[in-house]
Write a structure and sequence with these properties.
GO terms for molecular function: ethanolamine-phosphate cytidylyltransferase activity. Belongs to the cytidylyltransferase family. One of its GO terms (cellular component) is cytoplasm. 35% of the residues lie in helices and 13% in strands. The strands form two sheets. Strands 3-2-1-4-5 form a five-stranded parallel sheet. Strands 8-7-6-9-10 form a five-stranded parallel sheet. The chain is globular and about 70 Å long.
Length: 388
């Protein structure tokens, strides 16, 4: 220990979880955890452990490891972290305490996975992000119904307003997407976007005069490893990467069906959490215009190997960057699409429905047990930390 009074002990923070279908809720929890210390270590469970305690994960462990590594607040990922967090694990990685959201995580036997670190006083809590969970997203894909996409395309323009960002709450208690889902953790409330949340996720950086600015655009729905690998490849084309995100109605125009699964504001936060992204254009025009390129001083415009749908008037959306000789087609080496993720869910529909039901039942059981103990002790052993 140095005698220098200015020396400050580095606070190392531990988080762990499944991080399946890594979304902005996970990212927000990790952002809050990082704010409690200096270094954030994140343990990710194996497919085997998740299947044993929760049910089948949507993404493989290798995909989940890669996704968590790309979240900009994460300093280190520990692969194959134990499902029950132990003091030995914290000590091995020299972590001062463990951080988790204010929801309930239990083993297959219904035991609180954080009971050991809680008893030792090495547990901190952060606010869970309302309006999103992996359970909820799985439910959305199984339902694939969005109220604002049900009418004919001719009427879409008249649906701007509150319905534009509303997820249909069909009856599906076992999917955790409506008011009949009884658990406060499995059932999801509506996501309410705020400027504060965007500021918290934003890098706040502007390109330097010498930076080579790269621009890409798309839906980036259900942010996944395919998106991640593409953004990493695009980032390598310059110094400052800007991502244009299309509106929900625009995505529905060129993708059809009931896409996007996640609304524009949810997609903004998911992309902003990625360490390869410096800035996001919210509701970017589908065609890359001269005005957009000049405004952001864009020098390179990239697109992946997926087919490019024409604009509403039938024109090529990349005409301007092609004319300027700055359009690049990138191969990221990953062909995964949002449709592939949806198909994974649909193929294993029954397994995921059972998983969600089991999760809700275990949460309710433990919640009742905790309430009984709370009444007996007339106190709460949790340490609440709202670093949001």
């Amino acid at each position: 220990m140095s005698d220098n009074k200015n020396d400050k002990k580095e606070i190392r923070v531990w988080c762990d979880g499944c991080y399946d279908m890594v979304h902005f809720g996970h990212a927000n929890s990790l952002r809050q955890a990082k704010a409690l210390g200096d270094v954030l270590i994140v343990g990710v469970h194996t497919d085997e452990e998740i299947s044993k305690h929760k049910g089948p994960p949507v993404f493989t462990q290798e995909e989940r490891y890669k996704m968590v590594r790309a979240i900009k607040w994460v300093d280190q990922v520990v692969e194959g972290a134990p499902y029950v967090t132990t003091l030995e694990t914290l000590d091995k990685y020299q972590c001062d305490f463990c951080v988790h959201g204010d929801d309930i995580t239990v083993t297959a036997d219904g035991i609180d996975t954080y009971h050991l670190v809680k008893e030792a006083g090495r547990y901190r809590e952060v606010q869970r992000t309302a309006g999103v969970s992996t359970t909820d997203l799985v439910g959305r894909m199984l339902l694939l119904t969005r109220e604002h996409f049900k009418p004919a395309m001719a009427h879409l323009a008249s649906l701007r307003g509150d319905k534009e960002y509303t997820v249909a709450l069909d009856h599906s208690s076992n999917l955790g997407t409506d008011s009949t889902a009884r658990s406060p953790y499995t059932g999801c409330s509506q996501f309410l976007p705020t400027t504060q949340k965007i500021i918290q996720f934003s890098s706040g950086l502007s390109p330097k005069p010498t930076d080579k600015v790269v621009y890409v655009a798309g839906a980036f729905d259900l942010f996944h490893v395919g998106h991640l690998d593409f953004l990493e490849a695009a980032n390598a084309q310059g110094d400052f990467l800007i991502v244009g995100l299309h509106t929900d109605l625009e995505v529905n125009r060129y993708k059809g069906s009931n896409y996007p699964i996640m609304n524009l504001h949810e997609r903004v936060l998911s992309v902003l959490a990625c360490k390869y992204v410096h800035e996001v254009v919210i509701g970017a025009p589908y065609s890359v215009t001269a005005e957009l390129m000049d405004h952001f001083k864009v020098q390179v415009v990239c697109h992946g190997l997926t087919p490019i749908a024409p604009d509403a008037d039938g024109s090529d959306p990349y005409t301007v960057p092609k004319q300027r000789g700055c359009f690049k087609t990138l191969s990221s080496g990953n062909s995964m699409t949002t449709e592939d993720i949806v198909q994974r869910i649909i193929r294993h529909r029954l397994e995921f429905e059972v998983r969600n039901t089991r999760k809700e039942q275990k949460e309710l059981s433990l919640m009742k047990s905790l309430q009984k103990n709370h009444i007996k002790q007339n106190g709460d052993c949790h340490v609440k930390n709202d670093s949001s």
